[in-house]
Amino acid sequence: MRLKDKVAIVTGASQGIGRGISLGLAQEGADLVINCDRSIDKAAAVAAEVRALGRRAVVAQADVSSSQDVHRMVAEAIQFFGHIDILVNNAGVFVNSQIEHLREQDWDRVIAVNLKGVFLCCQAVGNHMIGRGSGGSIINVASISGVMPEINGGAYTPSKAAVLALTRQLAIEWAKYGIRVNALSPGPVMTPLQRASYPTEDLLAARNSAIPMNRHGTPEEMAKVVAFLASDDSSYMTGESITADGGSLSSMFYLVHKLAEQAGRGK
User: pTM (2 decimals)?
Assistant: First the structure.
């Protein structure tokens, strides 16, 4: 119970990684604000799961790219729980597209949710934490795509790279307030949406074979990293990004190195 009686906001918490993080924090003793944009029924189901674990939970429907929505969500959280100790910026969207074909409205939407949404939530919750004077922990969910671009990543890759930069910026500015800001960079994680992208077992097996650990991660594994970053176990860490990807990023760097080495030898 490393987070006993702490209050956490998790954005994009109605399914997938967000749901896993919410339940993981509840298991560590935290009370939850379950944020969603449209999936209110799914968010309510996650809140019920949190309560079944003996913790309090409230659903906050808000578009994180809207300043008005974010401030309302934070105000409701404070009104319900009295304070906020933890913020997990998990909400995100992805549009598969080559850059030359990426529509302007898709670029704007991805950047609005993935980057502006993180900024708005950090700013609103950060001001509460600064005013309260008790510090806090903010965890931004980035991606290994923010370090190693992926084909057809569109605006997603730039947005996640910017989240990592924003994490470091906030960390150095808010350390004096006792607010720690870190990031989680997941690799392939098996969620219902991810599973649907592999309609056959052969396709899934082929994707798994490209991961050194030969499998996808789970939302529960991501939750364990977030719980560590939210707790005092990481009390001397800020401005960091923890990669949880089954070795995917390391293998990519290895492959690039080997290709460059071969090219240098004229092979």
Answer: 0.91
Q: Does residue 1 lie in a domain region?
A: no
State how beta strands 7-10 and 86-89 pair: parallel
Q: Do residues 92 and 63 touch, judged by C-beta distance below 8 A?
A: no
For residue 254, indicate whether it is catalytic. no
The domain in which residue 146 lies consists of: 7-264
Other beta carbons within 10 angstroms of residue 178's beta carbon come to: 15
Burial annotation 199-214 (CB, 10 A radius, 16+ → b, else e): eeeeebeeebeebeee
Give percent above pLDDT 70 in the chain.
Answer: 94
Confidence of residue 267 (pLDDT cuts 50, 70, 90): very low
User: Whole-angstrom Cα distance, residue 257 to residue 157?
Assistant: 21
167 neighbors 239 (Cβ within 8 angstroms): yes
CATH number at residue 250: 3.40.50.720
The single residue of 156, 177, 198, 236 carrying the catalytic annotation is: 156
The string of DSSP codes covering 116-185 is: IHHHHHHHHHHHHHHHHTS-EEEEEE--GGGTS--TTBTTHHHHHHHHHHHHHHHHHHHGGGTEEEEEEE
* 3-state secondary structure (DSSP) of residue 200: coil
Q: What is the rounded CA–CA span in Å between residue 19 and residue 88?
A: 12
237 CB contacts (<8 Å, ≥6 apart)?
180, 182, 229
